[in-house]
Amino acid sequence: MAEDHVAGRDQKVVVHVDKTFRPLMGEFLKNVREDISLLLQAVDAGDFEAIGFTGHRMKGVGEIYGFSKITEVGACLEKAAADGLSEEVRRLVAGLSDHLDRAEILYIDVDQI
Predict the structure, then answer these.
(1) pTM
(2) Any long-range contacts for 106-113 (C-beta under 8 Å, 24+ apart)?
(3) Where are the chain's structural domains?
(4) CA pair distance 43, 86, nearest whole angstrom
């Protein structure tokens, strides 16, 4: 399920999530936050292999949970890692962290759409 994008850094971003994912969402978001921390450690260490691997995993799971931004950032992280772009990795991670901070989850019944 796609998310709605809201302009402005101080505004909430509404993310539409299938209600069947509600019991999993807390653990999922905790794991994404842990990935963000690991990505920052990896970029400090110059470990682009770890960045690429984590980006690939994020690309695969984000959309499943309704967070297309995670999928988008994951794909960009893969590319940045392949190109050895430390500052791009930092920019992507900061943007994802901001997005998660502003995310307001709206659980929906996808069978009713």
Answers:
(1) 0.88
(2) 106/14, 106/15, 106/16, 106/17, 107/17, 107/18, 107/19, 107/21, 107/22, 108/1, 108/16, 108/17, 108/18, 108/19, 109/18, 109/19, 110/1, 110/18, 110/19
(3) 24-102
(4) 6
d(CA 102, CA 45): 29
The CATH number of the domain covering residues in 24-102: 1.20.120.160
Q: Which residues pair with 63 in a beta bridge?
A: none
Let me know: does 50 contact 65? Beta carbons within 8 Å. Answer: no
Per residue of the chain (113 residues), give pLDDT as tens: 444 444 456 799 999 999 999 999 999 999 999 999 999 999 999 999 999 999 999 999 999 999 999 999 999 999 999 999 999 999 999 999 999 999 999 999 988 76
**Can you tell me the distance from the alpha carbon of 112 to that of 97, in angstroms, rounded to the nearest whole number?**
31
